[in-house]
Design a protein that fits this description.
The chain has 213 residues and is mainly α. 81% of the residues lie in helices and 0% in strands. The longest helix is centred in the last third of the chain and has 51 residues.
């Protein structure tokens, strides 16, 4: 008994059944990327106005235990929020304050990395969906060609090329966003570390030593 035709039919059915989810995923991903691009542009405009002069006022931050009011407009909102939460933690000293400071620091760093990971995922997923959206209609088109159905072949080729272009465009756009977002993350991590040292550091110690205390 030759089971190959049966396996071929099952695989063909699975492959064609994936076409609609792949096309829907590409459309949803394109809409999400457009919305993301709008937020990205707005943040880019804001960041052009920021002046990260934290290193110049670390002594002042350490003395008052919080960010100076004049400095807040020059920093991203999430950095200001982090500094406020850190000031509250340090202001309510307990035996677990160093651990809570470290936990807040790690949560903030993880949040920054998650922002990059979101768009970094599209760099791989977009072109992969585009490739799937190319190969699946090609199978349908070739099946139509064997039956002399040129209209089906033409329709399948159009869908195949369109999904390829959309997938590649998603990958290229997401890569651009990832590069810029990574630069912002590195800059924000530097600010987080400086603010942590300035607010939570004890005289003659570093934040790591504060945790071990």
């Amino acid at each position: 008994m030759n089971l190959f035709p049966l396996f071929q039919t099952v695989l063909y059915t699975i492959s064609t059944a994936l076409l609609y989810p792949v096309v829907c995923a590409l459309i949803l991903l394109s809409v999400w990327t457009l919305v993301y691009a709008g937020g990205f542009a707005a943040e880019w405009v804001k960041r052009r106005r920021f002046k990260s002069s934290v290193s110049d006022v670390m002594d002042q931050i350490h003395a008052i235990g919080q960010l100076p009011d004049a400095l807040e407009p020059d920093l991203p909102r999430h950095i200001v929020t982090y500094a406020g939460q850190l000031s509250d933690l340090v202001g309510h000293q307990s035996q677990f304050t160093p651990e809570r400071v470290e936990d807040l620091n790690q949560q903030t760093i993880a949040g920054l990395q998650n922002e990059v990971d979101k768009i970094r995922l599209v760099v791989r997923v977009g072109p992969s969906l585009g490739l799937m959206g190319t190969l699946i209609p090609m199978g349908t088109g070739l099946a139509g060609l064997t039956q002399g159905n040129m209209a089906q072949l033409s329709s399948s080729l159009i869908l195949a090329f369109t999904t390829t272009v959309v997938g590649l465009a998603l990958g290229i756009g997401a890569h651009f966003f990832t590069v810029i977002r990574t630069r912002w993350m590195i800059s924000d991590l530097r600010l987080v570390n400086m603010i942590t040292e300035a607010i939570a550091r004890k005289p003659g110690s570093s934040i790591k030593e504060v945790k071990a205390a």
